[in-house]
Amino acid sequence: MIFGRSERDKPPVEPVTLKILVAGGFGVGKTTLVGAVSEIRPLRTEELLTEAGRPVDDTSGVEGKHTTTVAMDFGRITLREDLVLYLFGTPGQERFWFMWDELSEGALGAVVLADTRRLEDCFAAVDYFERRSLPFVIGVNCFEGASRYPADDVRQALDLDDDVPLVLCDARDRRSAKEVLIGVVQHAMAYGAGRRQSVTT
Question: How far apart are CA 87 and CA 18, in angstroms?
Answer without folding.
Answer: 9
